Fold:
Amino acid sequence: MSAYRYHFTASPRPDAQRAKQNLVGRYGQTEVENADVVIALGGDGWMLETLRDRFSDRLPVYGMHRGTIGFLMNEYSPDDLPKRVDEAERAIIYPLEMTAIRTDGEQVKRLAINEISLIRQSAQTAKLRIVVDGKERLDQLACDGVLLSTPAGSTAYNLSAHGPILPIGSNLLALTPISPFRPRRWRGALLKHDAVVRFENLDSERRKVAASADTQEVSDVKTVEIRENRQMPLTLLFDEGRALDERILQEQFAY
Structure:
């Protein structure tokens, strides 16, 4: 069993804060720059916040559920943490990189772990053009929005929008419309992980659209280009037998 140096981080929720206090008392707290593993206490939202901080140090993250939704978390227990971390299964995930051009010409870059979505900002339906690898695939999509999801995010917003669940090792991205009006029967597409996807707002003056990289929103966008960034891998740790690919498989048989 390895002697890990832990850095504990917790959401503001009282349960998460109490768990952090308990675990720090038992295992000690190491400054993040000297830690081997980050322990995240909270829900999936807090896990995403913690993972975003890992773009700079690439430390593996072991989450324990002390929040609302815990798909990306392990069950909480203060016992046997060194053994659980030592025997944990690793899941490597890659973020999506968004380059958005706003209607005023400003360029904004963001990284997303789950998905990048475009959502209408007005009462009017958004009208979007979709280009994949430089080739127009849909000349006009009238919709509430559209999203591009990673396998790790495919069970989140993407699934709620009736998109497909993707296994972690599938090397695919899910392109999913949100409340499509025209073409009404278009249900999206599966794309290779290295596809470059471009969304163009066909009426950016009257039909304003916002782009979100997970929870990071950019308003009044004219175009958005998205690609996977394989230079910034992130590592999640899961208890043996409860790895992320197993959870995604289970989700496909849920009813």
Remarks:
- The chain has two domains: 6-93+233-252, 96-228.
- The first strand starts at residue 6 and ends at 10.
